[in-house]
């Protein structure tokens, strides 16, 4: 047992219990702080605040460690499949072969979307960003699946979870097809989760589509790398939306909206755009100088992380996967060389060393996704597709947490104090 934390305020002393997890920093339980002291805490960006307990994912940012239910991301990426990781995150343990088969079949059975949902797409402009479509269409799922929106019913929660994981690749592929003016493809449930998604994205009804096993494996691995990441902005958004009792489809739509931003999931798109803008290794110093310039808003996209102050373990796997995809597709994008050189220069630059800025998961993902054939506008959609598993698992964990309350932060008010209303004619 750790001694309680003491706080001295206005000459009085207060004690707060210290909670310990299985690993990671202890947490000071300040739930009674306001009742006892009349004061709030101030922590914009939640840099020192644990918003919940969670048994799903653990990150040690200093050591560059990422564990899902205790399993290292590197091992999962090398040896498991996305369906296995989905099961692990949702149920807490790795599945047996039979459990995995049953789970995969269950997910497969939910891959089709309501036929009327296809009509919904026509309301969007053809040039709409696919993330805009994702926010709208995923949000609309609660209008189609009324029988799985009762959050108090564990069976409905499970069905909604399966539906979201199963339908998100179908919706993502439809968003892509709509943007290129091609017909939607129905899912082919004889394929794997990832193979099915590739076919719905790149296949056409006029001819058979053969899934390239190396691309399928790489894509599956990319999904694993993005499956969950503790209490990041979009996951916290899902939890916050869910804390009010909103249905899971609405909560995941909120998560997608948050993920879209360039500081979060939108960074993979921004990172590739940045590499394209830099073009050749000779121009790297110019961009490094811009990233270091306090008066220039430019940042090296795909670099830096709130939690990792070491190499992001997902970036290590991602870098390796680039070579595998290039070999499988017999392509060689010179931007990969630019990326490697940029990494090398940045990692030897005092500014980046001192601030502990390392490549994150998004630095190399764009190069791979582009080689596979995805336009940059689809990159964040792929992140959303994979992260849906984590969001759903975190949402389920939150709903069953006895400590769960509606999320309602406080504030430090800096506006005017009360003043009399002045009628418009007298202003
Ligand atoms: N390039 C240049 N300088 C940077 C960068 C960067 N990419 N990232 C952080 N810094 C500097 C920043 O200017 C600040 O300097 P100072 O202390 O002198 O003011 C210092 O490093 C700390 O940055 P911060 O913004 O206070 O740190 P944060 O924890 O709030 O931000 C971050 C984390 C990921 C938003 C930020 O590193 C960033 O904007 N990176 C680029 C976008 C990116 O790649 N995002 C993907 C994150 S991984 C995928 C995901 O989880 O969504």
Automatic annotation (TrEMBL):
The chain crosses the membrane at residues 363-386. The active site is at 305, 362. The keyword Transmembrane helix applies. SUPFAM superfamilies: Citrate synthase. Gene3D superfamilies: 2.20.28.60, Citrate Synthase, domain 1 (1.10.580.10), Cytochrome P450-Terp, domain 2 (1.10.230.10). GO terms for molecular function: citrate synthase activity. It comes from the Bacteria. It holds the Pfam family Citrate_synt. The keyword S-adenosyl-L-methionine does not apply. Residues 406-427 are annotated as: Disordered. CDD domains: EcCS_like (cd06114). Pathway: Carbohydrate metabolism; tricarboxylic acid cycle; isocitrate from oxaloacetate: step 1/2. GO terms for cellular component: cytoplasm. It catalyses: oxaloacetate + acetyl-CoA + H2O = citrate + CoA + H(+). Keywords: Membrane, Transferase, Transmembrane, Transmembrane helix, Tricarboxylic acid cycle. GO terms for biological process: tricarboxylic acid cycle. Belongs to the citrate synthase family. This is Citrate synthase. It comes from Sphingomonas metalli.
């Amino acid at each position: 047992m750790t001694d309680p934390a003491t706080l001295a305020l206005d000459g009085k002393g207060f004690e707060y219990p210290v909670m310990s997890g299985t690993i990671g920093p202890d947490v000071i339980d300040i739930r009674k702080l306001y009742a006892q002291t009349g004061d709030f805490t101030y922590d914009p960006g939640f840099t020192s605040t644990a918003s919940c307990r969670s048994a799903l994912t653990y990150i040690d940012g200093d050591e560059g460690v990422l564990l899902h239910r205790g399993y290292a991301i590197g091992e999962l990426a090398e040896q498991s499949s996305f369906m296995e990781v989905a099961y692990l995150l949702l149920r807490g343990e790795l599945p047996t072969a039979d459990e995995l088969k049953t789970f995969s079949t269950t997910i497969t059975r939910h891959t089709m979307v309501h036929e009327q949902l296809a009509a919904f797409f026509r309301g969007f402009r053809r040039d709409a960003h696919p993330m805009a479509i994702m926010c709208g269409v995923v949000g609309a799922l609660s209008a189609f699946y009324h029988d799985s929106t009762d959050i108090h019913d564990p069976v409905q929660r499970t069905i909604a979870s399966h539906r979201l994981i199963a339908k998100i690749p179908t919706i993502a592929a439809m968003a892509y097809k709509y943007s290129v003016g091609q017909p939607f493809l129905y899912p082919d449930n004889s394929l794997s989760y990832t193979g099915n998604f590739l076919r719905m994205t790149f296949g056409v009804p006029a001819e058979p589509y053969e899934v390239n096993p190396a691309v399928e494996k790489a894509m599956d691995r990319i999904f694993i790398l993005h499956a969950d990441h503790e209490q990041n902005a979009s996951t916290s958004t899902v939890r916050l939306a869910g804390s009010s009792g909103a249905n899971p489809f609405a909560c995941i739509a909120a998560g997608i909206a948050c993920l879209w931003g360039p500081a979060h999931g939108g960074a993979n798109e921004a990172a590739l755009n940045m590499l394209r803008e830099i073009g050749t290794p000779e121009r790297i110093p110019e961009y490094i100088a811009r990233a270091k310039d306090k008066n220039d808003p430019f940042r090296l996209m795909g670099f830096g992380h709130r939690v990792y102050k070491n190499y992001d373990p997902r970036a290590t796997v991602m870098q390796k996967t680039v070579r595998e995809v290039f070999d499988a597709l017999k392509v060689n994008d010179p931007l990969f060389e630019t990326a490697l050189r940029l990494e090398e220069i940045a990692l030897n630059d005092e500014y980046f060393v001192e601030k502990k800025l390392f490549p994150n998961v998004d630095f190399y993902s764009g190069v791979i996704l582009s080689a596979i054939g995805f336009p940059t506008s689809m990159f964040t959609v792929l992140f959303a597709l994979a992260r849906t598993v984590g969001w759903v698992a975190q949402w389920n964990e939150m709903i069953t947490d006895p400590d769960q309350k509606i999320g309602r932060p406080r504030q430090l008010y800096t506006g005017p104090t009360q003043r009399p209303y002045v009628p418009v004619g007298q202003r």
